[in-house]
Amino acid sequence: MDAKRLENTLMAINQFGYSDKGMTRLAYSEIERQAVEHFAGLCRQAGMTVCIDASGNLIARREGRHPDWPAVAVGSHLDTVIQGGGYDGALGVVAALEVIYSMNDGQIETDHPVEIIAFACEESSRFGVSTVGSKAMAGILDKEKLSGLTDRDGRSMAEAFSDCGLDFESVEQSARGRGELKAFFELHIEQGPVLENEGLQIGLATGIAAPSRYEVHIQGHASHSGTTPMNGRHDAFLGAAELSLELEKAAKLEVAYGTVATVGVCEVKPGAMNVVPDAAELKLEIRGTSVESKNRVVDRLFAAIEEAKSTRGLQITFRQLSNEMPVHLDSEVIESLSRLCAQEGFSYRRMPSGAGHDAMNMALLCPTGLIFVPSKDGVSHHRDEFTSVEQLAAGAILLEQAILQWAGASSSQQEVYRTERVL
């Protein structure tokens, strides 16, 4: 394991979409596909076979002694939010390649094939729906719902697929059977402050919170801001603001369950200072590990919508963009990762994941593990996102040992390999 090589590979990937305002590699964009192709080239140079499936997932494969046995898969995603950081997603993909590099350096053979997967469209920033590639691979993608989605430029997902040489109508072909993969592992930054605050090197996710996402359209009536009395207005923005505050109140009532709610987008039209807003659109999510708690927040939101329609004279419609179920990760995988942390002398804790990850969909296909490393100051989805190379190395070493164990490297090879690592 060469931590400097890992860091250099990560820096090379992050030349794609870099600016001083942050990293922007939106799903199915030209710059994101360039990053995917660059990574594909690195995998080929490492002796792996590479393909892009029907949903745009990159799959690179290193054969094992038994090519017909189920593969052990590892990976994450290369797309980012708008002006995001350089570690979210990309770390897991690059660390997976470093494991392959290290196995090649040590001439390590495994019984099972090992696959790296760089999932497409993990982030919701472009189309308002997340983990598209891993949903497609798990066979749970709702193509009909996705077909109506557009980005900020009005381009549909089918058009975005076409831009990348993909056929949206064939997306179901990405689905894989339950017997194809033995296990899946994802290394990711925590995106929160817990590990840093507690001085720990590793987090082992026990479960993953899931979001329910909605789009809310509020129709008022535009009028002159100087001549329309306050009690005669149908202000779409104030209706949007009221719903946002009511959503916050609803989520705070669920603090014991860890449920959170966020209004991430608010667009107001016509957008002039001297015009009472005619229309507003909200995009929001409610996220948690308790389905019952999430549903209570949704019920309070719907009640607030009915109240705003009545008291403010507004027309309000809403559309559910997604409703994902929380996932509890495999206990055998968690136990094996715990033993490996003890073996390597890493401090760790078990913890839920408040953020969604591709691992939540892969858990429907095979036993799945999600490993966290600290995020400085808990910052993520921002240009200041940072994890030190020493922290990256700890996560990569744990990932490496998990792959060797689950893919069936001999115990003697693993022991020699451990003593020869370059850190």
From TrEMBL:
GO molecular function terms attached to this record: hydrolase activity
Pfam families cross-referenced by the UniProt entry: M20_dimer, Peptidase_M20
Domain of life: Bacteria
Entry annotated with the keyword DNA damage: no
UniProt cross-references to InterPro entries, sorted A to Z: Amidase_Cbmase, ArgE/DapE_CS, Bact_exopeptidase_dim_dom, Peptidase_M20, Peptidase_M20_dimer
Keywords: Hydrolase
Coiled-coil intervals: none
Peptidase M20 dimerisation domain residues: 214-308
UniProt similarity note: Belongs to the peptidase M20 family.
NCBIfam families in the cross-refs: hydantase, PRK09290.1-5
Protein name, as recorded: Zn-dependent hydrolase
Native source organism of the sequence: Paenibacillus filicis
